[in-house]
Specification:
Strand content: 5-15%
Order of helices and strands: HHHHHHHHEEEHEHEHHEEH
Helix content: 40-55%
CATH class of the largest domain: Alpha Beta
Strand order of the largest sheet: 3-2-1-4-5
Oligomer: single chain
Structural class: alpha/beta
CATH architecture of the largest domain: 2-Layer Sandwich
CATH superfamily of the largest domain: Ribonuclease H-like superfamily/Ribonuclease H
Distance between the termini: 96 Å
Number of strands: 7
Length: 297
């Protein structure tokens, strides 16, 4: 059924004596009916094949009707609405296969994705220090960590250049939020390195879940147990945490819970980690541990 006939029949059922209040009350249903006739009927004809394509000449023309055309037809029947109101009730026809979701994108390009972010740390004198970090999606390795009291777009862009360096290739994608610190200077740095910026939606921290999870880990496992004196003290704590966590992740990727570890001082193999080694990131056998305790006692 052509759209003009549908609108004419809907308008004939309206009593002019009902007043504008009743007319406005039925306007929403009329708009929904009009827009549905312009889009749904046409889309069904387009997907019906060759036989359905020539079944109704009026239905084929409705596919090409846009906001302005429907607005003009409504104006002819006495309904003055804007094109934006008509677009609110239009059903857009999706052609082809559905687009991949966010999870599919992350799993398909995990090796080519870095994620970055900021979080704040308060010192013992109530001074705010900003921590900037970059993490690799596939390996969960923290690529770069720096601190500053005055983060700017230029400073953030320099950190991306330092993170790439000579020994590490730039990623293909960089996921970050819409903070003002990722400004024009930051975008220019990414373009120069050939990195595509991927901004997460507003108020959607789950879109950058790996970076948010690392922030929670560094707080609960390290920062919450210290009283931060100054920026230098914070950098030292973060450096030790990143070193230990990276070494632990590499060891955990070896496979089983029972791991054959090699003692750093003497080079012998040991299957256990001592309770209090000289360096928490190192592996020391029992003999070297007892010797170390004898020397310190």
């Amino acid at each position: 059924m052509p759209l003009a006939s549908t609108l004419a029949r809907a308008a004939s059922n309206r009593d002019p004596r009902d007043g504008p209040a009743v007319a406005l009350q039925g306007l929403e249903s009329l708009l929904a009916l009009a827009v549905t006739s312009a889009t749904t009927i046409g889309s069904q004809t387009a997907f019906a094949g060759d036989e359905g394509a020539h079944s109704s000449h009026g239905s084929c023309e409705n596919v090409l009707w846009g906001q302005k055309r429907i607005q003009a037809e409504l104006a002819r029947l006495g309904y003055l609405v804007s094109a934006r109101t008509v677009a609110k009730y239009m059903r857009r026809v999706r052609r082809g296969p559905p687009s991949p979701n966010w999870r599919t994108f992350l799993s398909a390009h995990a090796r080519e994705i870095w994620a970055c972010g900021f979080f704040c740390v308060q010192t013992i004198l109530f001074r705010t220090i900003y921590v900037f970090f970059i993490i690799h999606h596939a390996s969960r390795e923290v690529v770069h960590v720096r601190t500053t009291r005055h983060p700017t777009s230029e400073w953030t862009g320099r950190q991306i250049v330092e993170a790439c360096g000579w020994e590490r290739e730039p990623p293909r994608f960089l996921i970050h939020d819409r903070d003002s610190r990722y400004g024009i200077a930051f975008d220019l740095r990414l373009r120069a390195l050939g990195i595509r910026s991927v901004r997460t939606p507003f108020r959607s921290p789950q879109a950058n879940a790996i970076a948010e999870r690392w922030v929670k880990s560094v707080r609960t496992e390290s920062l919450d147990h210290y009283l931060i004196l100054n920026e230098r003290h914070l950098r030292r704590i973060l450096s030790e945490y990143v070193t230990c966590s990276t070494a632990g992740d590499r060891t955990a990727r070896l496979g089983n819970n029972r791991r054959v570890l090699r003692c750093l001082p003497c080079g012998s193999q040991s299957g256990t980690r001592p309770a209090s080694p000289p360096d928490p990131c190192s592996v020391v056998c029992t003999t070297c541990t007892n010797l170390w305790h004898d020397m310190t006692d």
